[in-house]
Each structure stands twice: as structure tokens, then as C-alpha cells.
Design brief:
Blueprint: H1 15-28, H2 30-47, E1 51-55, H3 62-73, E2 77-79, H4 80-89, H5 93-100, H6 102-115, E3 122-124, H7 133-140, E4 143-149, H8 152-161, H9 176-190, E5 193-196, H10 203-218, E6 225-227, H11 232-237, H12 245-251, E7 260-262, H13 271-275, H14 282-293, H15 301-313, E8 324-328, E9 331-335, H16 345-349, H17 352-359, E10 365-371, H18 375-385, H19 389-392, E11 395-402, H20 408-416, E12 422-427, H21 431-442, H22 445-455, E13 457-461, H23 467-486, E14 496-501, H24 506-516, E15 521-528, H25 533-540, E16 542-544, H26 566-573, H27 578-591, E17 593-595, H28 598-607, E18 608-612, H29 615-629, H30 635-647, E19 654-658, H31 666-672, H32 682-690, H33 700-707, E20 715-717, H34 721-736
Parallel strand pairs: 1-3, 1-4, 2-3, 4-5, 9-19, 10-11, 10-13, 11-12, 12-20, 14-15, 14-19, 15-18
Antiparallel strand pairs: 6-7, 8-9, 16-17
GO molecular function, one term: pyridoxal phosphate binding
Cofactor: pyridoxal 5'-phosphate
Pfam families: SKI, Thr_synth_N
């Protein structure tokens, strides 16, 4: 009797037959039944009546891994080839393929899938099952599809060693590699979770990853967010008010004035997982990285694929999205200006609007507020204006910028990017006032409550205080490193330094996060202009705003004194001590400064070094690089280049973030290139630059925006909170009412 239920991994065991066996055991051998019931309950608590469905190319190890997973869960294991197809057809799969040919084989396979039914099992699909849509829809209804993502070169090597000479789809002139690449589109369509499988990873390790991934998929409560200012005792008392990714996307700023961060930190990739992405495209890398940071309960994989494809598919002028270019010596430029508005802000703000539209409830209107020191404004206006018409009717955006604190072209661009759901407001003050004002509006519960009750409108944030803004920036820092490996500049594991022009600390924080996730970044070099509060802080541990006034410079995007995202980093190195962070920022607000303890400063200086650049040195760097290479740096990249020259030790490559296209700062560039006569018209300035046949060429998207007629007016507002609130109400009334 007991031998009847002995585990046999490749047998098709139905739910009914299991129930009959358990009934017999319960009556005849209660102790044995209790042991089996306990084991069944363990697996049942993980998958219940759902199936774990393993999907991937031939040679991915689905059968072997399925057996191991089944043994770990003590549940039935079904191999589609051996247990379903060959049983149904009464012949081997290879014989069937030879008998009916490729197209008919897929149809016959699909018919078998449509008749197939199982529950509480581990199912290993064939490599071609996902190519039959109706069959996969049927199987997926009662299962969690796990994609074993193995690099194509690894699969090719395995198939060769297995002496496989034919797979479905093969015909004269079509190679194994062509077929494997073609099938990826089908795998990406169906999976719920993905497992990155490097070349020499053991099947047992992959099986453990499968179990971990399924647990994660079924338990979103493991991925909650906390405020940088919340205390540990407060968190334990607020377990009923968890914040998830969707919540923090919508809310932007935490109710206590802090910034949201993941409670358990970011996921860490193994070296082999990163290496599996070396041959991947930028979009593929973005998909893998973002889906590990965003729980599928918030955004499922198929929707994330759609969002990333929409964001990066056609909106960028370079097919590589974020190419890495050798500049000179050991210096490389990460070009982040190929998006529609010509700055690094496009990487987040082509994605975030679609994420936001997916996450918000359908029953409410949302007004997104953003403050900009230059580049964010046009990027957020462009991103939200690309939403579907139905989403634009319920989502509007208002951009506040310092009226006299951005470049003329940046200003023209923000005005030109205004659309039916996107407006710009010039404020007679600096960026720090704009950013502080938005924070105060968000924490004014009386005012936000009034907008909700009176107008049915909720406020949201699109600045880098919003967690969703940071995630796409992690991608390009990781991708830059992988590109250097792909170009054989370095082997994987060798360190690099990164140098980033820094104002609000978001971009450099994303690089630090990439380092935490396993990218071998040695030092992050913070490059300041003459507003060098961050440089002083990193060198001394004293963040001191007393007596400082903002200095307008040629690099306005980093003309910032209060760096919002620094708070997230301090929370990280302070071991999530929200009380300490609150104390530091209260002191900054009330006394104009704070000082880090010695141990925290030492931690900070393990990650960061800093320097600053004068206006004269900035222009000199632009002229020098153009004279020697023909390449034109924008003013922010020039700041980073100057600082990198001073601080790098030349023992490893250094990646300089080129955060904007020089076209946005034409007057300063023309001055740096020592061109005497400068026409004040922005379009004329760009045409003049274009006549020099520069590298890279003048940005087409920027030129087209500046050529547009209409939308030339914008609202200008005094630096007064009541006036800003009045602007907000007027926009709500005009758009939503």
C-alpha cells in the first residue's frame, strides 16, 4: 500500500488519484498519512492548487529543475514532452516533428495543451509550447509561469554537447541561434517571474531561485516602504499601514516629510546574473533590473514590458539608448541626452508617467507637481503629454521653475513642451524655493484635503523625491558598466569609478544603488559647480547653508543648495535610523546646518569623493575637449570632466555622466568655443552650432521644439505660497472641472 505513493518525478499524477491514495492511507496507516499530509500541506501553502510552470528554451534545464523543485515541495512533477505529448501521440516528440513538420507540430502541441489539466504540480513545458497562444492561455490560468532565462550562447553550447541536431522551427538557412532569438518574444509574453541563469549555475541553485521567486510572487508584503524619518518603534506600531510600490508612486512624499525607501533595501544580483546581461540590449537590461525592484503585484511583468517598450522604443534618437563613448585615456562618457528633451531626466520621465497612470485608481483626478532647476521641467511635461488620451483627461502636470534661473533654451523648451494637460509656471525665485514650496504643499493636509473634497483632485509628485524616478537611473549606471565589459575594456568584476555632476543627489544616489546591487563601482565622484555645498559636506561632514546664497552658473541643473535625495543616502548609512535623520533635517531647517558623527562621515567617504569647478574652468574644459577631439561637452558634463581630471587616480576606467546635450546651453557653448557674435535667438544659436559639424550633432528634438509656434506664453508667479496655491486651483478648474 505505501509503495503506491512513492515519489516518481516524471509521472502524471492527477489530483483525483492523489486523493484516493491519501484516503486509503488515512484509513490503513494513520502515522504515514500524517507525515505525507504535513509534507503536502507545506507545498500546498506555497502553491495551493496553482501549478509552477517552468518555461524556457530547449537546453534551459526545465526537466531537471522541475524534478528538484518537485522534490523540495513533495508534489507531482509533469514533463510535457515525456508525460503528456509522447503519451498522447504514442510516439517520441522527435518522431512527431519529423512526421508532421514544423507548423503542424506546433498546432498538435497546442491541441494537447488545451486538453491538459493539472493542479498543485510542477510542470516543465517544451521549448515551443509558448508559441501557441491559446494553449498557453489555458495553462497559465492555473499557474505561475517561471521563465528560465538562459543566455543564447550558453544554450547553443548545451545543445551542441547534448548533440541536438533539430528543434522546432528549423529549416534550411535558419540557424539554431535565429530560432532561439525568435522565440524570446514568446517567452517574454507569458512569464510571471524570471530567473536569470548564467552559464555554469548548478540546477540546485536555479531550483532554489525558482522557489524564492514563487514565494516573492505570492507575498507582496515582503516589499514594503518606509519613510526616511520613521522610527523603528513607530514602524512596529504601524504594520497595518504598509506602503507598497504603487502607494509611494502616487504619494511621492511621506506624510512625515521624509522620503520613501524600500524597507528591506534593494535586491542584489549575483555576478553570474549580471554577466548574463552583458549581451543584452538596454531595453532587456531595464526589464530585468526593474522587475526585480517592482513587485509584480504592483506592476506585472507583461505590463512592465509594455511600459519600457513604449518609453524607450521610439523616443530616443540612439538605438543604444544610453551609449558609452571613449573620450580620452581612461575616461568614458555615458551619453544620457538622446531622449526627446535632451537630458538624463528623460530616462525616468518617459517611464514614470506610464507607471503612474497604471498605479492610480481610476476614480480620481491627479495633478502632478514638479519643481525644476532646468531639465526636469521639459522632461516631465513631455513624458506626461505622451500618455493615452483617456489618461491625459484624468492626469495633469504643473511645472514650477525659477523664472530667471534657467538657460534661455531650457526656458523656451519648457514653454514649448506645454500641452493640453501640461503647464509651466515661472516663479520669481530660485529652485530651492520651488522645491521647498512643493514639499510644504504636500505636507499641508488641510490644503490637500480641500482639493480632494472640493475638486476631486489628488496631488502627486514627479521630482526625484518620488521613488519611481530613481529606479530607471539605476539601470543606466549598471548598463554603462556592462557596456565596458561587452566592449572588452574591462573583464567583469574589475572596478570603475563614476563622476557625476550633482545637485539634488538623485543621479549619484542611483549610482550608489547600482553599486549596492552588485555593479563593481569603486568610488562615486560628486562634481559640483560654484554652488559647492555638497563638496564641502562630503569633505568635512558639515552641511552648512548659513550665509550661502545660490550663485547662477552656466550649469543651472546643479544650482542647488538643498539636496533632497541626500536624505535617502544618510538614512542608508545610518542603518535606517529615522530618528537621527529627522534630527539632522530639523536642525538644517531651524539652524541652517548639521554635522555628521565621525563614524557616519567615515562610511560616507568610503563611497564618495567630491570636488568643484569654477565657471572659468568649465568653459576652458569645453574648449580644450573640442580642440583635441571635436566633441562638445555640455556645461554640466564639463564640470564633471574638470573634477574627474583632478580626482581620478588613473588605476581604473572612469565613467563620466554626460547629463545633457550641449544644445540646451548654446550661449555658454558658443562663448567657450570663442565665437564672438552670438545671436540671442535660440534657434539661430543652434543653427550656428550645427555649422561647426560638431560631435554629437545638434539635438533634433530640441530644435523641433524650439521651432514650434504657439504655446509661447506661460504664467509667471511671485515667490509666495498663497500665489502658488492659487495657480494650482486655477489649473484644476480649467482642466478637470
Amino acid at each position: 500500500m505505501f509503495q503506491v505513493v512513492q515519489y516518481r518525478p516524471l509521472r502524471l499524477i492527477t489530483k483525483t488519484s492523489l486523493s484516493n491514495v491519501y484516503l486509503k492511507l488515512m484509513l490503513s496507516r494513520p502515522v504515514a498519512f500524517a507525515q505525507i499530509w504535513k509534507s503536502w500541506f507545506s507545498s500546498h501553502s506555497l502553491i495551493g492548487n496553482k501549478n509552477i510552470i517552468l518555461m524556457g528554451p530547449p537546453g534551459a534545464g526545465k526537466t531537471t529543475i522541475g524534478r528538484i523543485v518537485g522534490q523540495r515541495l513533495d508534489c507531482p512533477v509533469i514533463d510535457m514532452d515525456d508525460d503528456v505529448l509522447e503519451t498522447t501521440w504514442n510516439m517520441s516528440v522527435s518522431e512527431k516533428l519529423q512526421d508532421v513538420g514544423n507548423e503542424q507540430f506546433l498546432e498538435e502541441e497546442g491541441k494537447a495543451l488545451l486538453k491538459f489539466s493539472a493542479s498543485g504540480s510542477v510542470i516543465s513545458l517544451t521549448g515551443s509550447n509558448p508559441m501557441h497562444a491559446a494553449g498557453m492561455q489555458h495553462v497559465k490560468k492555473n499557474g505561475i509561469v517561471v521563465y528560465l532565462d538562459v543566455p543564447t550562447p550558453v544554450i547553443m553550447s548545451r545543445l551542441k554537447s547534448m548533440k541536438v541536431d533539430r528543434i522546432v522551427g528549423q529549416s534550411p538557412g535558419i540557424s539554431f541561434k535565429d530560432i532561439l532569438e525568435f522565440r524570446k518574444q514568446f517567452y517574454k509574453k507569458w512569464y510571471d517571474v524570471r530567473i536569470l541563469c548564467g552559464g555554469d549555475i548548478a540546477a540546485e541553485v536555479v531550483a532554489e531561485k525558482v522557489l524564492d521567486a514563487v514565494k516573492r510572487y505570492q507575498n507582496s508584503e515582503l516589499e514594503t516602504f518606509i519613510s526616511t524619518r520613521s522610527s523603528r518603534s513607530g514602524r512596529s506600531m504601524e504594520k497595518d499601514s504598509h506602503k507598497y510600490f504603487s502607494d509611494v508612486v502616487i504619494e511621492g512624499l511621506a506624510p512625515d516629510g521624509g522620503l520613501f525607501v524600500p524597507e528591506r533595501g534593494l535586491p542584489k544580483f549575483a555576478a553570474g546574473e549580471w554577466q548574463s546581461l552583458i549581451e543584452a540590449t538596454y531595453i532587456e537590461r531595464a526589464q530585468v533590473i526593474l522587475e526585480t525592484c517592482i513587485h509584480p503585484a504592483d506592476i506585472p511583468a507583461f505590463k512592465l514590458t509594455e511600459i519600457i517598450g513604449t518609453a524607450y522604443g521610439e523616443n530616443f534618437t540612439c538605438s543604444k539608448i544610453a551609449p558609452v563613448r571613449h573620450l580620452a585615456g581612461n575616461q568614458f562618457l555615458l551619453e544620457l541626452f538622446h531622449g526627446p528633451t535632451a537630458s538624463f531626466k528623460d530616462f525616468a520621465l518617459q517611464i514614470v508617467p506610464h507607471i503612474f497612470a497604471y498605479c492610480i485608481p481610476r476614480s480620481c483626478n491627479y495633478l502632478v507637481l514638479v519643481a525644476t532647476s532646468g531639465d526636469t521641467g521639459s522632461a516631465v511635461l513631455d513624458g506626461f503629454s505622451r500618455l493615452r488620451d483617456a489618461d491625459k483627461q484624468r492626469i495633469a502636470v504643473m511645472n514650477f521653475f525659477p523664472e530667471d534661473g534657467v538657460s534661455p533654451i531650457q526656458k523656451s523648451q519648457m514653454i514649448g513642451c506645454q500641452k493640453e494637460n501640461a503647464w509651466s509656471v515661472g516663479v520669481k525665485s530660485d529652485f530651492d524655493f520651488c522645491q521647498t514650496a512643493i514639499k510644504q504643499i504636500f505636507t499641508n493636509s488641510d490644503y490637500t484635503g480641500f482639493l480632494t473634497v472640493e475638486y476631486g483632485t489628488t496631488l502627486a509628485a514627479a521630482n526625484s523625491i518620488n521613488w519611481a524616478r530613481l529606479l530607471p537611473q539605476i539601470v543606466y549606471h549598471a548598463s554603462a558598466y556592462l557596456d565596458l565589459v561587452h566592449q572588452h575594456i574591462i573583464p567583469f568584476g574589475s572596478p570603475v569609478d563614476v563622476c557625476i555632476p550633482t545637485g539634488n543627489f538623485g543621479n549619484i544616489l542611483a549610482a550608489l544603488y547600482a553599486k549596492m546591487m552588485g555593479i563593481p563601482i569603486r568610488k562615486c565622484i560628486c562634481a559640483s559647480n560654484e554652488n559647492n555645498v555638497l563638496t564641502d559636506f562630503i569633505r568635512t561632514g558639515v552641511y552648512d547653508l548659513r550665509g550661502r546664497k545660490l550663485i547662477p552658473t552656466f550649469s543651472p541643473a546643479v544650482d542647488i543648495l538643498k539636496s533632497s535625495n541626500l536624505e535617502r543616502y544618510l538614512h542608508l548609512i545610518a542603518n535606517e535610523d529615522g530618528q537621527l535623520v529627522t534630527q539632522l533635517y530639523n536642525q538644517l531647517e531651524n539652524q541652517g546646518y548639521f554635522q555628521l558623527q565621525k563614524d557616519l562621515l567615515e562610511k560616507l567617504q568610503q563611497d564618495l569623493v567630491a570636488g568643484w569647478c569654477s565657471e572659468e574652468d568649465c568653459l576652458a574644459a569645453i574648449h580644450s575637449v573640442y580642440s583635441t577631439t571635436g566633441y562638445i561637452l555640455d556645461t554640466h558634463t564639463a564640470v564633471a570632466k574638470v573634477v574627474a581630471d583632478r580626482l581620478q587616480d588613473r588605476t581604473c576606467p572612469i565613467i563620466i555622466s554626460s547629463t545633457a546635450h550641449y544644445s540646451k546651453f548654446a550661449p555658454a557653448i558658443l562663448r567657450a568655443l570663442r565665437i564672438a557674435e552670438i545671436n540671442q535667438n535660440p534657434v539661430s544659436q543652434l543653427h550656428l552650432l550645427s555649422s561647426y559639424s560638431p560631435l554629437p550633432p545638434v539635438h533634433w528634438g530640441l530644435l523641433e521644439t524650439l521651432k514650434k509656434k504657439g504655446n509661447e506664453d506661460h504664467q509667471v508667479c511671485a515667490a509666495d505660497m498663497s500665489m502658488l496655491m492659487s495657480c494650482i486651483e486655477t489649473l484644476i478648474q480649467n482642466h478637470f472641472m
